[in-house]
Amino acid sequence: MQKKGTKIMTQSKPRAAAQYGAAFAAALMTLTGCSSGTSGLRSVSTASAPSPEPLTWSECGKNLECATIEVPQEYTEPAGTQIPLAVMRHRATDPGHRIGSLVFNPGGPGVSATETLRNLPKTAGTPGAFSPAVLATFDVIAMDPRGVGQSQAVHCLTDKQRADAAGTAFAPSVPGGKPLPQLLADTAAFTSGCAKHQSKKFLASLSTDNVARDIDQVRSALGEDKITYYGLSYGTVVGPTYATLFPHRVRQMVLDAPVDTNQWFGNSLPFQHDVAVASERTLNAWFNTCRTEGTAVCPFGAGDPEAAFDTLIDTLEAEPLKITPAKGAALGGELDGAMTLEATRALAGDQNAWPLLTSALLAAQKGNGAPLYTLWSSVTVSPFPVPTAMFEAHTAVRCADWETPTGIAAHKAAAMKATTDAKRIGPRAAYSALNCARWPAPNKDRLTKPLTGAGAPPALVVGGRLDPVTPHHWAENMTRTLDSAVLLTREGVGHGSYGTNTCVNSAVDAALIHGTHPADGAVCKTEKLATTRPIVFGDR
């Protein structure tokens, strides 16, 4: 590893708040998890699995091809049950200069890689969006990990249960949003539903090391000797796992918004605490910026945005705002304090969405809850439980990897610590690992050895200074854990840097295409934090 420096790289290009809608919500929500132990990696490799047949592709969109690959459910039983995985390929737009295949994982866990690849041309300027240069020179390969998307997505709840959960009020003043007995009852319903809808053996197989082995099966089926890899958020757990199991198969690797893999495979409670504190820091950054700008620029709170926000949460929790549906839209609803807190958490996590947050909070103060309600509705995956189908796959993968205490006392202590250290966001994180504590399909041979990627080329690790999901010290820890890595820091608030910052874009493109890296410790600037340029929503 090179000696760390503080080289400042070029400034990013500002993005208009108007870019943020569904793309913002989808990009912001990629998640991760935590910890490591001391035992070794499993010796199982795909060498013992049957060599896959070449993929049979069919056209499934503009410049897109789709295929299915069969892989062993458990690589310890290579001739046993096989499971189908969905694969998509975006062909290099400049075949004459094609370098090879670039495999990517957009995170979650639970985010569909194939759906992300299908939508990438529509989401330029959002985290993980590939540049024209990368799309020209690589076949970009998306594989929905087992249990995710089109690869037998995990289901644990019925549509009615999910709808009921969405309509339940969560008091933000209560750790976990509900009394503990109700949380335990919800956990029992969730975990029993998971075991009912798919086999326990399948659930136990959803571990990241199996995902890495699946990627190598895809590599083999593609006929590639090596792959290039880009991972975002949870994808930065998949990448080092692959590089540790198959270092000779890695051409180049970029890890964006990295998880501390030495936490991912260990006790999940300190991990969830780190996420809560990171999210609280981004909310505090919005408060501090609003106060510093002054009321002429940021009128919310008349100089004391924290007090105004807390008052708004309490007011809406006591008397939610009724949301009248727009003409031709679905049924309306109501906006309560917990929903406002969740929407604010998500919006505060990306500085480019701050104008939306400012305007939506001001509107809610005036009695118009529609903007915040709409934004809350668009949050599909988050660091903490939300009632969506994607969360079910998200939980299943985490529980296959994590080592979660089963005793309730440990969860109570973690909940109290979270609410102390992150007083606004902490209650949303409290008890968020209960499903894994009661998980019905334990993974008995989980990874515990540090993921060093020894023997693979140096990796480029890109960490955001104020990341709401993967705090910057995780990027530092990953850089130290990997046998060879370079750390690039992006200043500012946001989860994921590639695709959003011209300086980072240049560095990542250089790493992926040419295998060249910036100086270790280099820093990319970003636009100044601002709550200004608000979109004005009218009174009720």
Automatic annotation (TrEMBL):
Entries under PROSITE patterns matching the protein: PROKAR_LIPOPROTEIN
Ranges for domain AB hydrolase-1: 102-264
TM regions (residue ranges): none
InterPro entries, sorted: AB_hydrolase_1, AB_hydrolase_fold, Pept_S33_TAP-like_C, Serine_prot/Carboxylest_S33
Domain of life: Bacteria
Lineage of origin: Bacteria, Bacillati, Actinomycetota, Actinomycetes, Kitasatosporales
GO molecular function: hydrolase activity
Family indicated by similarity: Belongs to the peptidase S33 family.
Residue ranges of domain Peptidase S33 tripeptidyl aminopeptidase-like C-terminal in the record: 425-524
Pfam family, any one: Abhydrolase_1
Name of the protein this chain belongs to: TAP domain protein
Keywords, in A-Z order: Hydrolase
Organism the protein comes from: Streptomyces pratensis (strain ATCC 33331 / IAF-45CD)
